[in-house]
Amino acid sequence: MASALHQLLPRLSGIYRDPQRVLRDAESLLSSPLGHHLRPTTEPLLNNDGTATPPVLVLSGTLPMTYRGVTYNLPIDMFLPPPYPLRPPTVYVRPVSSMAIRENHRHVGLDGQVYLPYLHEWRPTSHDLCELAVWMSSTFGSDPPCYAKPVKPAASAAAAGSNAASYTSSLSSSYCGNTNASSADELRRIVIEQEIADANLAAETARKAAVEEARLEREAVQLKQQHDVQLSGMKQMAVSKVQFRMRQLFDESKVELRRELKDQKMLEAGKTRIDHLLKEGEERKALLIRENTNMDEAISNLETWIEAVQQQKDKSEAEVTYSDNEEKIDLQTLPADTHSAQLLSLSAESAAIDDCIYFLDRALVKGSLPLDVFLKEVRKLSKRQFMAKAHLMKISQMKSLSR
């Protein structure tokens, strides 16, 4: 079987996206007990829209299923479409001439196509052909998709009639052959006839009882099937409702969890901001305390200074009061106008430059000042003294002209 599969796959090159996965899944199914009667072949797959695919791998044969303790072989064709394993396989039930597909079957259409939850929920990473075969065997074992067509009763009735006629003719001939027998034989014949009649009556009664028992058993089986179907439907309905409610609860919980996470993030951000504001407030509080302390010290110093100034003012007022009529010599040395003040300032600057040049000369003589530094400083001072003397001469000319 594996060799036939390996011979077919090169003919399907370019059909499948993952030929190794196709080979692996097909070999697993063919080597399993459920796929022992399947044979690999190639055939185009006809889609529902009327289009057909190129020839694809088909696992054709029978699938064993157990119904009421008896194992039956269900003929199937399992097509692996080109997108496999992204798309689930397409499975058809192929009944033989003596079988027919049940109408309104839950998992098989009138065209034989199989519809299972396993195919509807197909996932490439978690589903494969072996599990699909197990699902089909289990599902069809509890609810077979096919039934045997009823046999026409003409042949059986004819056979039964011929048997009854032969039995009656033989019985009549035996009775006629014994008409000339002795009385003992006649008595024995009567006893035998009575026993035969009793046996026929008992057989007829047993047959009727068997027919009635079979009818009751069929009715019980039908009731059990109806009960099983109703129970299965109720179970499926309950499972659907529970799953729907669980999905609702899951969605509500997810929304609530997202909202709680958003609120938690907002609270954490608010806490961080409040901590930052508290820290900043503590720092500003400490800064204000320091500034307040410094301000208190400044106010104290200012008050001390004001007191000292006030005391000096009082003392000055007392001195002015005491020497009202005496003129101080310092007031007489003050310049009378702006030009006089400039003349006094420039004369003092020129005299100071003379003193500075003198001391620079002394430092040069003593050797504590280098010659280049001495020359540089003397040049700068001489330039400044020249400007001061020129300014003095200009102010003197201005004063003489104004007079």
TrEMBL record:
Keyword terms, alphabetized: Coiled coil, Endosome, Protein transport, Transport
Residue ranges of domain UEV in the record: 3-150
Signal sequence, renumbered to the chain: none
Domain SB: 337-403
Highest rank taxon of the organism: Eukaryota
Keyword Coiled coil assigned: yes
InterPro entries assigned: ESCRT-I_UEV_domain, ESCRT_assembly_dom, SB_dom, UBQ-conjugating_enzyme/RWD, UEV_N
GO biological-process terms attached to the record: protein transport
Cellular component, GO, one term: endosome
Location relative to the cell: Endosome
Principal cellular location given in the protein's record: other
UniProt xrefs under SUPFAM superfamilies: Endosomal sorting complex assembly domain (SSF140111), UBC-like (SSF54495)
Similarity annotation: Belongs to the ubiquitin-conjugating enzyme family. UEV subfamily.
Protein name as it appears in the record: UEV domain-containing protein
Source organism per UniProt: Cyclotella atomus
